[in-house]
Amino acid sequence: MQTRKNAKQIVACRVRCRRTGAGLSHYIMLAAPKKDTSK
Amino acid sequence: MNPAVSQRLRHPRANMGEGPQLAVIDIGHPQKVAVVQADTAFWALVDRKAVSECLAGDFVAEITARLPEMAAEMENLRFGLKPSAVYFNPTDRCNLNCSYCYLPEDMRRNGEQMTPARLEKALEILAGFFETIHGPDLKPQLIFHGSEPMTAREAVFAGIESFGHVFDFGLQTNATLLDDRDIAFLTGNQVAVGISLDGPGPAEADATRHNWNNKGVFDKVVQVMDRLAGYDRFNVITTVTTANVELLPEMVDFYHDHGVRTVMFNPVRCTSKGARKLKPDDNLLAHYFTAALERSWQLYQKTGRKLVVSNFANILASILGPTGRRLMCDISPCGGGRCFFAVAANGDVFPCSEFIGMKEFRGGNLFGDDLQAILAGPVFKAVTTRVVEKIDPCRRCAIRHFCGAPCPAEVSSMSGCLDSPAPFCTFYQHQACYALRLIAEERHHAFLWDDWEDNVESSLDMSR
User: What is the complex's ipTM, to 2 decimals?
Assistant: First the structure.
């Protein structure tokens, strides 16, 4: 995988969060592992 | 078909006419450069010899076709989110007098402190607010923050016991007032705990963090750190100043030796005069910061155990996908007043804890005003409409959405207006280039949280 990707002339990948907006915050909580914020 | 249109469709070009604006950035990699579409935070890593393939033809046509969905994603991230966290100061008072604290000294010496009943009332109001805007499904974050929240231990712990089913609690503390029973209570209730430490030994750590008699607290903080190192909701924040910037690589070894898994190396926020005196030079900071990250890489290779530097991990995550981020400081508008807000000990509401102490940013009072009206009011709007497009040179900067020109409280305090660039602008440039180099070298996973991929999916792959 690594060799194949490095061999590519152009690497353009993007990901998307499945739950955009959940658990976004200021710096304190984000340093700790993210918990599921649904009740 | 009009021949001109036909020609344009056959061979679309970037940077002309209706073509996308693509900036080419030298990221300091021997073989690759970055090609960035700044408005949508799209990036590609491209062999230096292949740059022309990205600026015309099929690649440009494909970017053009995908731009609307990327733009919509950015629009939602920047303007479509609702608050899901609150920073809650149960007390104005602090038992320490750190050199860079952004809260006024008189407030920290003589300020207000909530009683258990007052804190319970505040949490009731906040619970009702979040339920109104999100419904019953979201568990909002509530972070007890300072000054030093543990000076109000009785009220804080009563709140955690009563509202554990409502809020995902966190506590940011200087650690000096935590005993074994407190630690057992916090970990038993799954409260995220952040503590602060500025150096690998007492001489360095105590230079900036000390009590009102200038006595350092290193030994006590390390004792607490050792008790909490194995707890999965624990992190340590090191505020980076002129006093410790050169020690960052050593700090990585120190934390790794102590079993800590998550740290933040936060450049000092230059909100107060004391903090501004301690601001490290951007290039020096970048040098030692990246050296520290490389040291974490070496230790990971050697031991298989990561030390995640979360503030950098967030920049890396936000480049890999804007919605993959967790921190809402490095984006414009920042999260202040729209993803989170702060409540002071007297109930005053501010867009972020960084603004507490700046009266002109008081939006209203939790006990006397409607929270939704505070959030929609002019004070909060000033922060929630601060965008990089209004700031020079950010409006023409290719990494404007990997940086966000933080922080408005800091900027306002330093320049007297909100629409100025980040005090650490150059440092952000270094971080973005380093992050892109790590992606080019496929080393980025070693710098991200282990669970980072749990909540993300691939949304675009134009590699070729």
Answer: 0.84
